[in-house]
Amino acid sequence: MNNSVGFMENGMSNPIAVIQKEINQTFKQIENKKEVNFPSENPIASAYNTLIESEIKQLESYKEINQHLTSSFSRQNNYIGNIKETLDGIREILLRAANGVHFTEDRRVFGQELAGEIDQIMSSLNAQDEEGNYLFAGTKSHIPAVKEVNGSYSDNGNQQHKEVSVDKNRRMRTNVNITSAFSTNNDTRLDLLDRLKKLSDDMKQDKPLADYQDHINALLKPTENAINSIIEANSELAIRIKALVSLDEDQQTKIELHKNLSQQLVGMTEDKEYIYINRLFELHSIQEKYSKILSKKYEFNIWQTIR
């Protein structure tokens, strides 16, 4: 865990405030024209500034990764939302088609509408990012997530997850699994889409309702299950996005603090600087203990659940 920023509660002192107080004291010494040395003349300050600059670069690298990941999650969220709306439409078509009062022409229209909804789902499942990677193909992001051959649909990617480092000792999955929502047998065959396609063809071909009435009724439950799976995937993405936003803010705060510390090291006397740096390390150690305690609940609710 990076120790640059901590949070103190219940009236406990904030170590950062203590650090800032010592910085202010150093400023007063400089204003009183006491002899000072610059980092280039002081190996202690120079070494510590090098460490600070390295930390800033690492934090900025994480922020860039996280911003890209947040953008990807938002794009996935939009397509998953489209799939959910499409499945809601399919459920409505099934409920209307199950009503025996409709004429053959009505059922033909239902079949056409259902075919359009299936095409829309296929389009969303095979969505790509701005770099041309398929969002829902697992680790096989270079190929379409789903393929259709002679009216039969199957998972063309896999159910595996990619991971990236989003901070020190923290990794996050970059994708969610949604193609499995359309498989009732837990295999690569997306049989829910197959069955919906067959129903669509039957209705468009003006077959008697009796030929597929049972088929309609049997599709209602798996369609509802698919909707629930999609909602769950969307909720998972929302949790990840929220976690990344919080992490980005925390990393930005750390960057600003590091830059401030680096600036304040310039102009300190060597003796005062030695005392200051030792105190700073001591404060970091105290801060780490507090941060671990205060972040325990957050780690459990956010980081553990998204894995």
From TrEMBL:
Chief localization: other
Record key words, sorted: Bacterial flagellum, Cell projection, Cilium, Flagellum, Secreted
Subcellular location(s) per record: Bacterial flagellum; Secreted
Molecular function, one GO term: structural molecule activity
GO CC, alphabetical: bacterial-type flagellum; extracellular region
Domain Flagellin N-terminal: 9-140
Family (UniProt): Belongs to the bacterial flagellin family.
Name listed for the protein in its UniProt record: Flagellar hook-associated protein
Organism: Candidatus Regiella insecticola
